[in-house]
Amino acid sequence: MLGYLTGGLAAVAVASLGYAGVLRADRVALQQDVVSLQLQLSACGGRLQTILDDKGSDHAVDQMPDTDLIAVPDHWLRP
Question: What Rg value do the Cα atoms of the chain yield, rounded?
Fold first, then answer.
């Protein structure tokens, strides 16, 4: 009877260690996913800032009066 109890406890211990190993591997995979997603989010933020800067410079050009666009220095003209 004691042998069955000892064997059962050993089986539970081995199963628990195996399950802990699986959980540890899952945790490591999830941590890698978090790092990857953080980098992707940072890249999206950078792209958004670039788009906003581009829209700002486009707005500045659009606000120039037409008279400023007509006055071209002579050295810019082709011969």
Answer: 33
Three-state SS annotation for the chain: CHHHHHHHHHHHHHHHHHHHHHHHHHHHHHHHHHHHHHHHHHHHHHHHHHHHHHHHHHHHHHCCCHHHHHCCCHHHCCC
Domain segments of the chain as ranges: 29-54
Alpha-carbon distance of 21 to 12, in angstroms, equals 14
Tokens 């959980």 correspond to what residue?
23
| Residue 29: band (very low, low, confident or very high) from pLDDT cuts 50, 70, 90 | very high
pTM for the model? 0.54
The number of residues making up the chain comes to 79
Q: How far apart are CA 31 and CA 74, in angstroms?
A: 62
